[in-house]
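At this stage, I put together one protein's amino acid sequence and its backbone structure tokens, which the following lines show:
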Amino acid sequence: MKKKITIVSALLISGITFSQLGINTSSPKATLDISAKIPTGTTTSPEGLLIPQISRERAQSMTGVALSTMIYVNEVSTGSQSGNAVNIDKVGYYYFNGSVWIRLSADTSKFVDKSIYTADGSLEANRTVTQGANTLAFTGNAVNAFSVDGSTLSVDAANDRLGVGTTAPEVKLHVEGSSILNAARTVSSTKNALDINIGQNGYSYGNRTDNFGINIASKSTVGTGPVARINFGDNNVTTAGSGKYLSFSVGNELNELMFLTSSNSGRVGIGTSAPTHKLHVNGTNPLRLQGLSAGNTSTDSLMVVDATGVVKRIGALGSLSMIPSAAIFRLETPQLNFLQTQAIGERQVVPMSLVKNTIPGMSFNAATSTITFPAGTYQMTFVYEALHNATGCTISSYFVDFPLNTGSTRIHSTASHIEGVVSNHGSTITYATTVPANRTWTITLGRGQSGNCAGAGMSLTAYSTQLLVYRMGD
């Protein structure tokens, strides 16, 4: 007991007198200088500094521990690896850093400062930085001041640019290689997939002179330059106006091939930047419509163009009086001894076939040689070629009863010819008439009043006997 008190007294006196304490030395070089009593030789007596030995549970339980306190943990079976003992996982020397105990490892690499500010290093595990209300900023003045995985992401702090796929971005945002912009679908028109601001405070104003837009260009050694461009802005060159526009250009000259403007509730121009109608196409033979389906000539409207090129529509083909439509009927088989049993004033059906019909709404029953007309005005021409070789037959007379509203009107044709086998004769009978819708008419030819031919011997010639029907309008 006396010995311990003497040592403590000596330490106190030395500390008060010299502010430095030496053990086994009279010239301490630090606040506490402990020198070996026998620094060399083979003496077996132990020397050194004996640090307090405690368990993990004891180290975890201590409070008010001063910064840099050192201990030796001699067992880790008690206590838990948590709180200030989170790093105490094995026996060894530990020092207190003010919050937790830090182990002094025999691995010297663990004492190397691995801060990114002093040397390169590697993360030993996943790390999360919780900023809270604090900010994290990087400043620099180099081209590739900050990068991720080489050229995956590069910040050009010297020119205020960002590069993706390149370490030397040439514009504010330079993406080298393929890219995709995938915006979440939304039902709100105010939530835009991509905002390109050209007219807000702090930004230059986009107009027809500046011609802001999205440029698609070729960087190849051959054909370098613009390929296509989407232009947008305002027709006003000074301040924001009402003439908003969006246009599309192709080629090095960037001529605006398609132009959309908000003027007059929105117009679209192709080949012009000053559209005057909803769709204004300017060019040589500017319109081609391929793959159109067949229309209905009786109900579909016709498209016409006025003197200024404005497209308009007029009535259906069937209702246009200036465009006549026609139907052609023809006798395909010669009719021998035609009208043999018919007396003067009687008639016989001519069994014609329909060759062509362009009259909308007209139909033909070939079995009865009957035509059903749509309402309209018609010109009808009956053409016949015949012979009548009966004895004494030199004058042939025929008639056609043409339709007229609900009734009919009779038109005669008389032809003179010689007697015998060379008694060929022919003529045309023409009449203009107006008929109501669904009026039916059977094609017939009758024996007229003025002839001297009767009985057998008359023949109608095939192909030369025809009926031509022209619809001239309503």
User: Anything to note?
Assistant: The first strand starts at residue 21 and ends at 23. Residues 155 and 162 are 5 Å apart (CA to CA). The helical segments are 2-18, 56-61.
